[in-house]
Design brief:
The complex is a heterodimer of chains A (748) and B (496). Chain A is mainly α and 748 residues long. Chain A has 33 helices and 2 strands. Classes of the chains: A mainly alpha (748), B mainly alpha (496).
Chain lengths: 748, 496
């Protein structure tokens, strides 16, 4: 059981900024300072504006600044208290892995029951901490806002409340209220404090996101009509018979079309927010026009609302639909990665470049989520946080340049390294982090995503390895545009005389940048701190049979053991599943070697999603992923009728067979080619980030299958925390064999 | 049933009417000295508050359904409508106190007319006989015609009144003819015709089969007549002109009370016609979609704030029609009625609040008209600007405001009734609406004021500020805690 350090801590964290905003409203309005109007004659004299906001001596300004900072800091500290009290691996059958739960009756109208229901799991907790952290930096950075400072701080704090609320609301209506409430302060931040085209950008931002979310509201009501509750947790627990979640799941057979529409409405709202490729056009405008702090929050946190929405709502509530549409999302994500990178490369505007790089990075996150592999999903989550660190940092840096020069055009800079060495060094760090260089945080996120995509590509008709290959070009392209960007701004000769006298970082800016750098390396070198908190959530997001599928790949399991904390005993992740597999497959799991022709990978990659018949895919899969048995019993039955699920009676008791079983479950035909890159890659990823050395035996082993000894740290008699079996058995009961098959990827 | 019990059931209407008479007589008897207008306003407010209290009390009582031989009813639904109407009347009185003086229109008749038209609207909500409905509608309308032309010296106001009157008279003809046809259509060999809605329901239930053509013709004319009052597309032509021309406090009142009265009547009458719903529901849904999209699309093109709000009020009528069409379904009947009542209250509060801001900003002798007049308001008058923000967000249906909650309840009702298409149409229409509401916000908050000097403001408008505060706080509070309005919603649900 988790301990709540302070009663109602979640409400405090959420509403403390609101209190701050209300408090600020009663403070005296400070005198506006003259705004710089960007006239070039002024700059021609080589007298840049002094970017030292702390110098300004106006008691009203200082009061506003410090009160806002105090509230932001207090919220940050509270969120850290929460982080410290967070129990890793805590799971409860009713409330899943949510902690610090709060619930109260909120709205009772007729038969409608809407509750104030809050709670966090690892995913949302880290996002909340990220929010409060970035908000402190944003307030700090914005000390120098010259006009309408009070309103700025009020809107910033209001935004913080709404953002935190989004991440902890566990009632669909409450979530929607926060979700929409985010728009209002952001609209103002862009519209009042933005640059030239701010009104266009603000209205575009608002309308785009509003259009997506209003349809989500209809879907929320539709979910309620189908199930009678707005409780996200009850809806997510789809395995419990008779629960609202089971009712929702039952629609898969009763009215799949309606369910697909609901899913589509949710997904559309999140796609726009992320933003994914065809809906991304609001993003560059909003990012470029927003003030620096606004851009940082927008990129750092608001985009995460979209990915968070997928994880919290789309996947648990509509698992079948999410799997059915995975291909679409993967394709769009890859388009986003490549398109975003290419467009970013040609931007003359430094801020716009960073904005488009967001499209690419978020493409990676979506790709990772829709691989439906633990490794890919964990990578997506880490990347989610990475992007929330490195992109705001880039925005802060561009903002600092803007404050010095009042231009964002890359061509206006050049050779700044000699003038502002500290700023240049910070920019380099942020650039490398964004490129995903090893040791930096980006790598820890993007590499597992590619790995996960590679894993899932073998079982899903996503164009085989091409999807991974295409996505991987995104990493190269990011190096192209980011390094080129850095080169044009910081290196080379100083082309503009005005640039010779720019001041270097001041104290305030050091305060903003240093924590970000610290976190970049923290994630890059010790990602376990982050992954172990999210591990339980990731496991809960993956349906049982899907996980078994991924487990069959040696490279993943090695990596996955790194990710999955070995002291995550209650879940018993890897071991438990491995033991479950033989139960589900009565026949001895030996792969017919005949089903392994040479060019299997190519066959899959070339096959169009719709054209590939199930029977064709299965053999095509086998050469690379030889341990097919968990997916397909080799009995040679017609693919359409085979159910990979364990027999309905057993799933809850995962029969603690001796751990040696795992060896027999995955018989490796010796001739099977193993991915050559395994050991070095694994080493790269794990060497630095795993100081504790747990599970490191996997790193050095190159022989895949036998190198997976039973993890001695995992107790074999793990309590079945989440009854995965009933879910599958309920599918059996409904006779929806095709759905199950679809999900496992055997079909299509 | 004795007379006393009959009168008890319509006590709120009586109070309002009698207050109106007192104010009228007082205004005539007391010689003109300066304070009398304030006195008239205070007496009127007193009457409104008293009537509200009685309405709330009557909600809880088990009222006999049929009063005056089934001509009117004092049921909970009528009382719920009364509360909404009386709130609108109270705000209209508060708004007028300084505004009229400012425009040199401060005549006692204003309050009298407001009270009489409120009584008419309340009677509309209570009428269970179509003839009484017609009388009530005319009581409401005639007072409103006069109010629209209240700025006697202004051409625009006169034009508005005339236009409203002519078109209104035309629509009243439709309504009356419709009633006559219904009377004829509901006659059969055994029964004489009826205009009583309860008897009508019984007749329709018993007869079964397709209704007589004459009856259906009557129903469609009835819909036209009431649709005119509620400003449904395509019977909305008068709305923008009248809203623009009438003095702003009248516009605020008209926007709220005419719509609430009309929708109360629509809900009651078409609820009674539920047995033949398949024959008219599609027409109503088409009207709803036309109204939502028409109102919103026209509103986008407006540069005049009052006209914009007029088109927005048309769009809101469309949203309400979604609730009406959902209320026909037996599953969603109660939910839809509750949603409609909540939305009517929300609509009254937020629309009147928005108009109140315009009144607050009106300078001596000149109303706020165009969007440009709102430029940079956040710099010159942050209170007005941010209150206006609340109203705009509420009108746009963005949480955490009352407008959002109302829209949400209508979504719920529509989906419960299985009318998914209507819910989606409502969603799409509100996307359009957000654009023009936000345009007001960006004018106020994102633009710099035209002149930096503080603009000359009319006299310190205490009444206006109070009503802005009331509507603003209510729009937020009931958006966050809609439970507080359960009493009204529960009452509205009681409609059989």
């Amino acid at each position: 059981m988790y301990q709540t350090p302070i009663p109602h801590i979640l409400s405090w964290v959420t509403f403390l900024p609101l209190l701050g905003a209300i408090f600020l409203m009663f403070l005296k309005r400070p005198q506006d300072l003259p705004e710089h109007h960007g006239d070039h004659e002024h700059e021609a004299h080589g007298v840049p504006d002094a970017p030292s906001p702390l110098v300004v001596r106006d008691p009203a300004r200082n009061a506003i600044n410090w009160v806002a900072l105090a509230f932001a800091l207090a919220t940050f500290v509270l969120s850290l208290v929460m982080l410290a009290a967070f129990q890793i691996g805590y799971v409860n059958s009713d409330t899943r892995n949510m902690q610090f739960l709060e619930s109260a009756s909120w709205i009772r109208i007729g038969t409608l029951a809407i509750d104030y229901r809050m709670g966090v799991d690892g995913i949302s907790l880290l996002l909340i901490v990220l929010t409060t952290f970035l908000m402190v930096l944003s307030v700090l950075f914005s000390f120098g806002i010259k006009q309408r400072l009070k309103e700025f701080m009020v809107f910033l704090l209001l935004l913080e409340t709404a953002l935190i609320g989004v991440f902890c609301a566990l009632d669909l209506v409450l979530f929607y209220v926060f979700w929409e409430a985010v728009l209002i302060p952001m609209y103002f931040l862009i519209g009042i404090f933005g640059h030239e085209n701010r009104i266009y950008a603000a209205i575009k931002f608002f309308l785009y996101t509003f259009a997506g979310s209003i349809l989500m509201l209809v879907a929320i009501v539709a979910v309620y009509r189908a199930t009678g509750t707005f409780n996200v947790l009850a809806l997510s627990n789809q395995a419990v018979p008779g629960s609202p979640g089971a009712k929702l799941y039952a629609l898969n057979s009763a009215n799949p079309q309606a369910l697909m529409w609901m899913y589509a409405a949710f997904a559309l709202a999140f796609m726009i927010k992320v933003p994914m490729f065809p809906f991304h056009t609001w993003l560059p405008d909003a990012h470029v026009e927003a003030p620096t702090a606004g851009s940082a929050i927008l990129a750092g946190i608001m985009l995460k609302m979209g990915t968070y929405g997928f994880l919290r709502f789309c996947l648990p509530l509509f698992p079948e639909q999410a799997h059915e549409t995975a291909v679409l999302f993967i394709v769009l994500a890859i388009i986003g990665i490549i398109y975003g990178s290419i467009v970013a490369a040609v931007q003359p505007d430094a801020k716009k470049l960073v904005a488009y790089s967001s499209v690419a990075h978020l493409g990676f996150v979506i790709l990772g989520i829709f691989t439906f592999t633990p490794v890919g999903m964990m990578g997506a989550l880490v990347q989610n946080i990475n992007h929330g660190i490195s992109t705001p940092m880039l925005f802060f840096l561009v903002g600092m340049l803007y404050e010095r020069r009042h231009t964002r055009l890359i061509s206006e800079f050049g050779g700044l390294k000699r003038v502002v060495p500290a700023l240049a060094a910070m920019t380099l760090l942020a650039t490398l982090s964004s490129i995903a260089v090893p040791f930096f945080n980006g790598f820890v996120g993007e590499f597992p995503i590619l790995l996960g995509s590679w894993v899932s590509a073998q079982t899903k008709p996503v164009g085989g390895y091409w999807s991974t290959a295409l996505a991987a070009t995104g990493m190269i392209l990011s190096a192209v545009y980011m390094l080129w960007w850095f080169h044009r701004i910081m290196l080379g000769p100083i082309t503009k005389p005005v640039n010779r006298h720019l001041p270097d970082l001041d104290l305030n800016e050091w305060f903003v940048l240093t924590p970000l750098v610290a976190i970049i390396f923290w994630v890059g070198l010790w990602s376990q701190f982050w992954t172990q908190r999210m591990d339980t959530s990731v496991r809960m997001l993956l349906p049982a049979n899907e996980r078994r599928l991924e487990d069959t790949l040696p490279i993943t399991s090695v990596l996955e053991r790194e990710y999955s904390q070995s002291d995550l005993a209650p879940l018993g992740g890897l071991e438990r599943r491995r033991r479950q597999a033989p139960i589900g497959n009565p026949a001895p799991p030996t792969v017919p070697p005949a089903a392994a022709p040479g060019g299997g990978a190519e066959t899959t990659s070339g096959a169009a999603p719709s054209s590939a018949a199930p029977s064709e895919v299965a053999p095509a899969l086998s050469p690379e992923s030889r341990p097919i048995p968990p997916i397909r019993p080799p009995s040679g039955a017609a693919p359409g009728t085979v159910l990979p699920a364990p027999s309905p009676g057993t799933p809850n008791s995962p029969a603690p067979t001796p751990s040696g079983t795992s060896g027999t479950t995955n018989p490796t035909s010796p001739g099977t080619p193993t991915p050559v890159a395994t050991p070095p890659m694994g080493g790269l990823l794990h060497g630095p980030q795993n100081p504790a050395g747990t599970g490191s035996p996997g790193t050095g082993t190159s022989a895949p299958a036998p190198a997976r000894p039973a993890n001695p740290n995992v107790p074999s008699l793990a309590p079945p925390v989440r009854p995965r079996g009933p879910r599958t058995s309920s599918i059996n009961g409904l006779g929806r064999a095709d759905a199950t098959l679809h999900r496992t990827g055997t079909k299509s | 049933m004795n007379t006393l019990a009959n009168l008890h059931g319509i006590l709120p209407i009586l109070i309002v009417t009698v207050t109106g008479m007192i104010v009228l007589l007082g205004d005539a008897c007391i010689p003109a000295w300066r304070r009398q207008r304030t006195l008239s306003a205070l007496i009127s407010l007193l009457g409104v508050v008293a009537a509200t209290l009685f309405s709330v009390r009557l909600m809880g009582e088990d009222n006999p359904v049929a009063l005056f031989n089934g001509a009117v009813t004092g049921d909970a639904f009528a009382q719920a409508s009364n509360v909404v109407l009386l709130v609108a009347a109270g705000i209209a009185i508060l708004l007028a106190m300084t505004y009229l003086e400012n425009r040199r229109l401060n005549l006692g008749e204003y309050y009298v007319l407001v009270l009489f038209s409120t009584a008419g609207a309340m009677l509309m909500a209570a009428a269970t006989d179509l003839i009484v409905l017609f009388i009530a509608l005319e009581t409401l309308s005639v007072a409103l015609y006069v109010l629209a032309g209240f700025a006697r010296t202004e051409e625009r106001s006169e034009e508005a009144a005339l236009k409203y009157f002519l078109l209104g008279a035309f629509a009243a003809g439709f309504l009356l003819y419709g009633i006559a046809l219904i009377y004829g259509g509901s006659a059969s060999a055994v029964h004489p015709g009826t205009t009583n809605v309860i008897a009508l329901t019984t007749f329709l239930r018993e007869s079964g089969g397709p209704p007589p053509v004459m009856l259906m013709a009557g129903v469609s004319l009835l819909l036209v007549g009431l649709g005119f009052k509620a400003a449904l597309v395509p019977f909305h032509m008068w709305t923008p002109d009248v809203y623009e021309g009438a003095p702003t406090s009248v516009t605020a009142y008209m926007a709220a009370s005419a719509k609430v009265g009309a929708f109360a009547a629509i809900l009651r009458v078409f609820d009674a016609l539920a047995p033949i719903a398949p024959y008219w529901l599609i027409a109503m849904q088409v009207l709803a979609v036309l109204t939502m999209f028409g109102g919103n699309i026209w509103a986008v093109t407006q540069d005049n704030v009052k006209r914009m709000l007029a088109y927005s009020s048309i769009a809101h009528a469309g949203y309400l029609l979604v609730a009406v069409s959902a209320s026909i379904s037996t599953k969603a009947h109660e939910e839809a009625l509750g949603a409609a009542a909540f939305y009517l209250l929300a609509y009254a509060l937020m629309t009147m609040g928005a108009f109140a801001i315009l009144i607050l900003l009106s300078r001596r002798g000149r109303d706020v008209q165009t969007m440009n007049d709102l430029r940079g308001l956040a710099r010159t008058d942050p209170f007005a600007a941010y209150m206006m923000l609340i109203f705009m967000l509420s009108l746009g249906g963005i949480p955490p405001t009352m407008g959002f909650m109302g829209k949400w309840l209508i979504f719920n009702a529509a989906l419960t009734a299985g009318q998914t298409g209507m819910a989606i149409a409502l969603a799409l229409a509100s996307i359009i609406s957000v654009y023009y509401y936000l345009r007001v916000v960006w004018m106020m908050c994102f633009q710099e004021p035209e002149t930096t000097a503080a603009t000359e403001r009319a006299v310190a408008p205490a009444g206006v500020t109070v009503s802005i505060a009331i509507t603003g706080i209510a729009s937020l509070l009931f958006g966050i805690l809609p439970n507080l309005m359960n009493i009204v919603m529960d009452a509205a649900r009681a409609l059989p």
